[in-house]
Amino acid sequence: MIFIIPIILGAALTIAGVGVAAGADGVSKMEEAKKIGKSTQERYEQMQPQPFHPWSR
């Protein structure tokens, strides 16, 4: 029984470490996705036709 406890704790720490690594990777991907979305939104807004008003020259 005493030998099982370190194995269980080791497995739990390993699983927790994998979870933390996956979470960090997810945060990194979310930041990259936000940058891509912002860039795409800016390009979209630049491509929209601007209203022409003769008095606004």
Binned, the helix content reads over 70%
The rounded distance between the terminal residues' Cα atoms is: 85 Å
The DSSP helix count reads: 1
Q: What percentage of the residues does DSSP assign to strands (E)?
A: under 5%
Q: Class by helix and strand content? A: mainly alpha
Sheet with the most strands? none
Radius of gyration: 26 Å
The shape, in one word, is rod-shaped
- Poorly predicted segments: none
| SSE run | H
> Average pLDDT across residues?
88
E-strand count: 0
Could you explain the architecture of this structure?
This protein has one helix spanning 4-47. It is built from 1 helix and no strands. By secondary structure, the chain is mostly helical. The mean pLDDT is 88.
